Amino acid sequence: MMNIILFIAAIIYIFYISNSYYKSHGDVQKLLLVFLFIVHFTAMGLSYRDTIDFLDNDVFYFYNSAKNADSWMSLFGLGSFFMSFLIYPLVQAGSGRVTLFVFFMIFAAISYQCFLWFFDQMSEQYSKRMLFRGIPITQFIFLLPSFHYWSGFLGKDVLVFFFLTYLLFEFKKNARLNFLHIIVLVLLFLLRPHIFVVVLLALMIYYLTQKNVSKIIKIKLSILSLIIAGISIPVLFHFTHIKTLTYSSILQKISVLNSYALNSGSGISLDETSYLERIWLLLFRPFFL
């Protein structure tokens, strides 16, 4: 029953945000919306197909941890633990692959909202030198299947993508923290502590460089930045399981990450490819064959 309710809620939400975008834009953007919808949810379907029979991945780790947990609070923690904590009630109320498909649909709807926010921004603020047939080139880039493949499944990065996109557009309108922003930052910390630290330090730097911020507040922010930087180092060590920062420990960690990458959905070797090559493969090898 819970699966049906959530699935219907996701469909209604997708229809609502699509209809809102459709009614508020011209014919060209309406056509792009159709392409975005097709690409995004087709990629979600492919992501589900490629994941459901591949048991050694994050999706099943989150699901099985939530399914086999002794209690809800036993899952509360950082990173993957918090992801299992989030889905625990729905996993306990659902059943098997149907529940996983509903999760994929919900998370695909979340990332779809982000793409609509970006599309809306691009349609309003674009350079006339960056158009093709009246369409911002950046919108074509956002139609690359890989973006939608990776954002159409049950994963931490989908929520991180949503939180960062939300904060970006919120601070574009008004660069002041409110209660909801703090909640989002806390959730970001629980999902990806290292990304939270980077975002928080970026906010600190922004406020420190503003002329309308008093010196007392800037001093307090400077002290807070040093405290965060000091705390983030041991947290990062704990999160990456690095006990001592040595050349050999770094090489060992890279080897572990490379092994994980080769056995994951992307199958991209960190040793045999450069940073730019990895970006290229992730963008233009959407079906990971």
Question: How would you summarize the topology of this molecule?
Answer:
Blueprint: H1 2-23, H2 27-52, H3 58-68, H4 80-93, H5 96-124, E1 131-132, E2 135-136, H6 137-141, H7 145-150, H8 156-173, H9 179-191, H10 193-208, H11 215-240, H12 247-263, H13 275-284
Antiparallel strand pairs: 1-2
Helix pairs in contact: 1-2, 1-5, 2-5, 3-4, 5-8, 8-9, 9-10, 10-11
Task: Walk me through the structure.
Strands 1-2 form a two-stranded antiparallel sheet. The longest helix is centred in the middle third of the chain and has 29 residues, at 96-124. Helix 5 packs parallel to helix 8, helix 8 packs antiparallel against helix 9 and helix 10 runs antiparallel to helix 11. The chain is mainly α and 289 residues long. The chain has helices spanning 2-23, 27-52, 58-68, 80-93, 96-124, 137-141, 145-150, 156-173, 179-191, 193-208, 215-240, 247-263, 275-284; strands at residues 131-132, 135-136. It is built from 13 helices and 2 strands.
Total helical elements: 13
Query: C-alpha Rg, in Å?
Result: 21 Å
Q: How much helical structure, as a percent, in the residues?
A: over 70%
Structural class: mainly alpha
Keywords:
two-stranded antiparallel sheet, mainly alpha, 289 residues
Summarize the structure.
The protein has helices at 2-23, 27-52, 58-68, 80-93, 96-124, 137-141, 145-150, 156-173, 179-191, 193-208, 215-240, 247-263, 275-284; strands spanning 131-132, 135-136. The protein has 289 residues and is an all-alpha fold. Strand 1 and strand 2 (135-136) form a beta hairpin.
